[in-house]
Amino acid sequence: LVWMSGCGGRAEEAALNAEPHLLTQAECSVCGMYVHEQPSPRGQVAYRDGTHAYTCSIEELRAVMQTPSPHGQPIAAFVEDLPVDYELAVDLTSPLSWIRADSAWYVFGASRPLVMGKPVLSTASEAVARSWGASLKTKPVRWSVLKTTPFSDVPREVTRE
Fold first, then answer.
1. Are 18 and 99 spatial neighbours (Cβ–Cβ below 8 Å)?
2. Per-residue pLDDT band at 4 (split at 50, 70, 90)
3. Which of 33, 50, 140, 151 has the greatest CB tally within 10 Å of its CB?
4. What is the mean pLDDT of residues 101-111?
5. Do residues 55 and 42 make contact, with C-beta atoms less than 8 angstroms apart?
6. Which of 117, 144, 120 is nearest to 28 (CA)?
């Protein structure tokens, strides 16, 4: 994940050392809702100054990543790693594991009531993503596709719409 400014070593080291935070009472940087009360997967961004921005969804995470911040460029982004049976991940207060956004696999096409924006599933496992994709008749994508392609322009074979 390379969204850093500055000179080499220290910025790279900061990115490697960035860790996700627990959500507790964090407010979404986009909509202002309490993130821990929203259905997963949720996201968060770490900035070089140690500040974190939190989001209710993957779509909102993209918006935060694309918006200039007084904290500078993001050094890392994180998403929740959904369980294989993602439909059971409905207990909004139970935290899931966090994974780096650039190492995750993403799948469109699932129904996730109450998710802010277009629902996108996130997982650390390529095998799980391919299984979800097969059942939803979509193709898994990586962060490089998600962060640069407007959701309205994601190909039909990816979104199943």
1. no
2. very low
3. 140
4. 90
5. yes
6. 117
Element holding 128 (H helix, E strand): helix 126-136
- In single-letter form, the type of residue at position 147 comes to K
Identity of residue 153: D
Amino acid at 31: C
Q: Which amino acid is at 27?
A: E
Q: For 128-157, how does the pLDDT look when each residue is reduced to its tens digit (9 = 90+)?
A: 999 999 999 989 999 988 887 776 666 666
Amino acid at 37: E
Q: Are 146 and 120 in contact (CB under 8 A)?
A: yes
**Cβ–Cβ < 8 Å for 145, 104:** no
CB 66 within 8 A of CB 41: no
Place of tokens 């095998």: 127
